[in-house]
Amino acid sequence: MVVLAASIVSKTGKPLVSRQYMEMSRIRIEGLLAAFPKLVGTGKQHTYVETENVRYIYQPMEGLYLLLITNKQSNILEDLETLRLLSKLVPEFSQNLEEDSVAAKAFELIFAFDEVISLGHKENITVQQVKQNCEMESHEEKLHKLIIQSKINDTKDIMKKKVADIEKSKMEQKKIGLTSALSGFGSKAASSIMQELEGTQGYRIDPAPVAISKPSASTARGPSKGMQLGKAKKANDFLETLAKEGEVVELDVPKPTGGVAAVTANIATDPVSLGIEEKVSVSLNKQGGVENLEVQGTMSLVVNSDEDAFIRIAVAGGPNKNFQFKTHPNIDKNLYGSSNILGLKDPSRPFPTGSELGILKWRFQSKEENLVPLSINCWPSVSGGESYVNIEYESTSNFDLQNVQIMIPLPASGHAPTVNQVDGEWRYDSRRSALIWTIELIDDTNRNGSLEFVTSAADAEAFYPVEVTFSSNRTFCDINITGVEHTQKGGPVKFALKKSLETAEYNVV
């Protein structure tokens, strides 16, 4: 038995975790995983499919697939036993079988997979042994961490003591300055004021001797530059270090003196910030058809001040046919369903401040070609020991796309292709053995474009999958914010809104 790779993928073939046990390029493993969803049939009892070169053995896990890729000569019974063992391990390390949770536990899952499979062969091990090996504790490591933590605590104690010394020094300086100021009132007035302060403030002021002399000629002409000390700057640097470590300190900011321009940067922030973000996943086939188009959107809210946390948001939108919407559990669903207003179930409670909160989510899925924002067609052909590749894109008028990148895998020849014609810019990525075609902006001036290049002869499959990334300021869902209202004070609340569309996964396979 030889296991080529163990992976966890989404229903659309998006790889979340993949561990290769035989040497293969990233392009090849991504191509194998991207082709898997198209091979899986519906209504079939068996959980394996075969291609010309490899065998896929899989097990559905809620919205994901646990997948083994093996060669066709491997023992399928042993492969199924390996798959069953891995299926027991995955819930042990990722209790929530969703994409985000599995991706967050990627390294733990890879370490667990390595305990089960070594160089493509299954190890004689149980689930409990895998957990014990992955949770192995080291006494030396614990001791080292305790020593480090002890040093950190000692350093913090020393810094706190130094802060106290600095504060004490400041108080002494203030006393001396107050005494000097009082001396201008005369000795009797100063003595009276100091006695009154000692009685009301609870501390004693020792008057310092003040020498009074006639002003000299140089003094009459104007102030002279005196000696400047650097202790204040050093003290501030030290206090800034404490502040970075979480200590509450008060920094002394020197006031600007005459002749020095003081510049103050006032950053105006809106009380409420709203974001509408969508991620689109598209799978196109080589003939230009749509295998799948899926859009997942989120409306997020950030309240920047406590006094503006008692709010509700008025939403406006188009028909949005076939879109599925879901509100946050604390949002009043009935209010949103009847009035398109997003507010808390308990209006007396405020929204949390300072943190981002997703208040509305939506999902859309389709196979209609006219909805795809960017279509890609690739035409490879072999002639005289070379491959001639023509690639063209076509964009719909619904979206203006920014930072478009189209990555075409190349045969592992080790040298850059010859580009005969390109709309935009291109570069050769030798590490990934790929040509990256870049278009900064696609709008009404360039809805169509093409690229033509020549490289060493290879099969047409070598130029797939083509990967696409882009962003846009327009979203699939016709949704907008018409206003934010304060639920206690009444009246509108100023807000900022940002809309964005990004590619989560966009392939031509």
UniProtKB/TrEMBL annotation:
<dbReference type="GO" id="GO:0015031">
    <property type="term" value="P:protein transport"/>
</dbReference>
<dbReference type="InterPro" id="IPR011012">
    <property type="entry name" value="Longin-like_dom_sf"/>
</dbReference>
<dbReference type="Pfam" id="PF00928">
    <property type="entry name" value="Adap_comp_sub"/>
</dbReference>
<keyword id="KW-0472">Membrane</keyword>
<dbReference type="GO" id="GO:0006890">
    <property type="term" value="P:retrograde vesicle-mediated transport, Golgi to endoplasmic reticulum"/>
</dbReference>
<dbReference type="InterPro" id="IPR022775">
    <property type="entry name" value="AP_mu_sigma_su"/>
</dbReference>
<feature type="domain" description="MHD">
    <location>
        <begin position="269"/>
        <end position="509"/>
    </location>
</feature>
<dbReference type="InterPro" id="IPR036168">
    <property type="entry name" value="AP2_Mu_C_sf"/>
</dbReference>
<keyword id="KW-0333">Golgi apparatus</keyword>
<comment type="subunit">
    <text>Oligomeric complex that consists of at least the alpha, beta, beta', gamma, delta, epsilon and zeta subunits.</text>
</comment>
<keyword id="KW-0931">ER-Golgi transport</keyword>
<protein>
    <recommendedName>
        <fullName>Coatomer subunit delta</fullName>
    </recommendedName>
</protein>
<comment type="function">
    <text>The coatomer is a cytosolic protein complex that binds to dilysine motifs and reversibly associates with Golgi non-clathrin-coated vesicles, which further mediate biosynthetic protein transport from the ER, via the Golgi up to the trans Golgi network. Coatomer complex is required for budding from Golgi membranes, and is essential for the retrograde Golgi-to-ER transport of dilysine-tagged proteins.</text>
</comment>
<dbReference type="GO" id="GO:0051645">
    <property type="term" value="P:Golgi localization"/>
</dbReference>
<dbReference type="GO" id="GO:0030126">
    <property type="term" value="C:COPI vesicle coat"/>
</dbReference>
<dbReference type="InterPro" id="IPR027059">
    <property type="entry name" value="Coatomer_dsu"/>
</dbReference>
<keyword id="KW-0968">Cytoplasmic vesicle</keyword>
<dbReference type="GO" id="GO:0000139">
    <property type="term" value="C:Golgi membrane"/>
</dbReference>
<dbReference type="Pfam" id="PF01217">
    <property type="entry name" value="Clat_adaptor_s"/>
</dbReference>
<keyword id="KW-0653">Protein transport</keyword>
<keyword id="KW-0813">Transport</keyword>
<dbReference type="GO" id="GO:0006888">
    <property type="term" value="P:endoplasmic reticulum to Golgi vesicle-mediated transport"/>
</dbReference>
<keyword id="KW-0963">Cytoplasm</keyword>
<dbReference type="InterPro" id="IPR028565">
    <property type="entry name" value="MHD"/>
</dbReference>
<comment type="similarity">
    <text>Belongs to the adaptor complexes medium subunit family. Delta-COP subfamily.</text>
</comment>
